[in-house]
Amino acid sequence: MTQDSVKSSRQSAHLERRRAALIVSAQDTIAERGPEVTIEDLAASARVSIATLYKHFGSKEGLLAAAIVDVLQRWEAWMTEAVSDLPTEIEQFVAGARLGVRGHEFQPEFARIGLSVLRTTLIDLDALTVDLGARVERLVADGVIRVDQIERRTRLFLACLVDEFIRQGSLPKPKPDEADAVVEVALSLVGFTPARARKLVKAPLSPLGGPSQ
Q: CB under 8 Å to 19, separation ≥6 — which residues?
């Protein structure tokens, strides 16, 4: 590796660390100030100029988009780890959905950031259904469930979960039974029979939901 390539690699790593720090700062600011957050607020909290934010993200919307992608990726990583010891993919799928909707109960600080980001910027469900749709396709391929129009059904399923996650965040205290009831109903959209959905949703989540941040 030449001296120039080493220098370039170090610069790239520095920029990535800087960008990641700006995203975390933005998430904290959004969680604190809510949907009315301005680019000035974001810059002041990060202790950088507005021009610096534009350099890294292009616009306020670009920064908000990066913030929500990061939240969702970390959220997905937490849920994947939490359910990884369950014996079957169908159990992992349902437990992951329940943990996502009940995030305010299991990961309140992280859920607060996620909720504020969701309220601040429009969520692109099409972008989020790719991995979820792939899981549904595997369940169909394995004969675990039978369903057509997978992409459309997955989008509706996810919309139900996001809506209930937002609703749970507006309550004085999370209501796990109501959250699970929504997951149970939503499972019918992706091919689960009422009996199977009810059985899977009644399974204990503890200790799956322990903090992992």
A: 56, 66
